[in-house]
Amino acid sequence: MTSDRGARYIAVEGPIGVGKTALARRLATEFGSELILEGVDDNRFLGKFYEDPARYALHAQLFFLLERYRQQQRIDHEALRAKGAVADYLFAKDAIFAGVTLQEEELVLYRQVYQLLDAQIPKPDLVIYLEARPEVLIERIKKRGREFERAIDEDYLVRLTEAFRSFFHHYSEAPLLVINSSDIDFVEVGGDLVDLIKEIRGMKQGVQHYIPLGSR
Asked: Are 87 and 32 in contact (CB under 8 A)?
């Protein structure tokens, strides 16, 4: 699974505002890998969902699901084997969001579609799960200033954070590195990133909980 560069295919995951994309960019540069970014801004239903969740949740989830599936299908497997890839999402994230946002009947329909698509996409060699306190997520969301995220409230983030924690507590499809990023910054603090790179290079099977030096 690992080489002197690290994992072949790394997926970085976690709730909104936790820092997935920033970390994925740094890791892709470090390992010389292809960078795969989800197109959050392309979902025309997302802003409507934050304003009226009950009406637009299924629209937003199905749009995300199909777009992520198309993106995963376009991954060049030869390039993946040659230089690896780092993605700022795990395909399963869509099902985590769906479990929080959809009504029961909608969720039954959604899961039928999800299971058909999930069976056809490549699985990562390593998943990095970033978690942070909801108040930290709120602050980071405000800092990046996306217009469509202004309507996100802390109650929604609390439920979403718990859904992610529950999902990864039972996750076993790939080696898993769990990081609490509430008090560290992989972008601004070089030492935090250097320590993480070492951890990734030495990552084996199973689950590891990483406590960065900056959080001790």
From this structure: no
